[in-house]
């Protein structure tokens, strides 16, 4: 059967949802690996990563069941949820790519002042103390603090923040286009007739 028919749409939709399933399991696995090896001490960050992974897994599961069974209601809800996720993810990805140096600096300062666990992770992994100025009287979890010869963290973080934001924005943008592809495939597949089904059973 030529691509564009019922079987091709079904197989493409199943493959797309299997990809989403793998990505969701990867997200959960990376979060668990980071916390178990002590790379991440922020339970809020781990919680967000796990929640996103579970949410993506559930969406993929709904899409997979809907595609296999050609279930009209499941496919409808899957299409709507995927469209909403596309809008949010596309907006966030564009925001990541559009942030300039000054906005990145402000974002870093807000994050630094509001989350102690993230601050601890940054100081420990980048071997730095303080945001803009190193103060030997403050507590710090980095190795350099023992010798009282530490660099402030802001210059080190700002050196890589642009690259990280571009990477995150690019990955998010790529996946947002796979989501709009999923919406289009679901819409087309939902309105196609299963050639093996009873014609009177099609809704």
TrEMBL record:
Q: What are the alphabetically sorted keywords of the record? A: Membrane, Transmembrane, Transmembrane helix
Q: Which InterPro entries match?
A: Tetraspanin/Peripherin
Task: List the GO terms this entry assigns under cellular component, sorted alphabetically.
Answer: membrane
How does this chain sit within the bilayer?
Answer: Multi-pass membrane protein
Subcellular localization: Membrane
Q: Which residues cross the membrane?
A: 12-33, 45-68, 75-100, 167-187
In which domain of life is the source organism classified? Eukaryota
What's the protein name?
A: TSN13 protein
Source organism per UniProt: Bucco capensis (collared puffbird)
Q: Which gene encodes it?
A: Tspan13
């Amino acid at each position: 059967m030529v691509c564009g028919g019922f079987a091709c749409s079904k197989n493409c939709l199943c493959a797309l949802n299997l990809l989403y399933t793998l990505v969701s399991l990867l997200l959960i696995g990376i979060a668990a690996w980071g916390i178990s090896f002590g790379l991440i001490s922020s339970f809020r960050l781990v919680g967000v990563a796990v929640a996103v992974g579970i949410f993506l897994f559930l969406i993929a599961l709904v899409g997979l069941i809907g595609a296999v069974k050609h279930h009209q209601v499941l496919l409808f809800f899957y299409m709507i949820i995927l469209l909403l996720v596309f809008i949010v993810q596309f907006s966030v990805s564009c925001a990541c790519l559009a942030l300039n140096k000054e906005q990145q600096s402000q974002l870093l300062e807000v994050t630094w002042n509001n989350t102690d666990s993230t601050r601890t992770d940054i100081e420990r992994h980048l071997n730095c103390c303080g945001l803009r100025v190193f103060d030997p009287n403050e507590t710090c979890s980095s190795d350099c603090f023992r010798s009282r010869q530490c660099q402030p963290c802001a210059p080190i973080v700002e050196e890589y923040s642009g690259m990280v934001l571009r990477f995150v924005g690019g990955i998010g943008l790529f996946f947002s286009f796979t989501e709009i592809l999923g919406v289009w495939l679901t819409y087309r597949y939902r309105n196609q007739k299963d050639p093996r089904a009873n014609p009177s059973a099609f809704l």
